[in-house]
Specification:
78 residues; mainly alpha; 0% strand
Length: 78
């Protein structure tokens, strides 16, 4: 029996699951990480301006479908 093909498919499934999980984590934590890195950068540059995380409104994280997936999120974004 050819187990190389089966092993390749298993590895591809594992890579796909890891990629999907990574995308989800980056999307959910992206803004928080971005603000923290900006604060670290400002501290290294001896700037004392602290950036705060602005709360999101409901329409900025509302459920989206395939029909409006590529439209910008939130009001005023083009």
């Amino acid at each position: 029996m050819n187990s190389k093909g089966q092993t390749l498919i298993e590895y591809l499934i594992i890579v796909a699951v890891i990629a999907i999980g990574s995308i989800f984590i980056v999307k959910s934590l992206g803004q928080t990480v971005r603000v923290r890195f900006a604060n670290i950068t400002n501290a290294l540059q001896d700037k004392h301006d602290e950036i705060t995380l602005q709360p999101l409104s409901a329409d900025e994280y509302s459920k989206r479908g395939l029909s409006d997936f590529f439209k910008p999120a939130g009001p005023g974004r083009h």
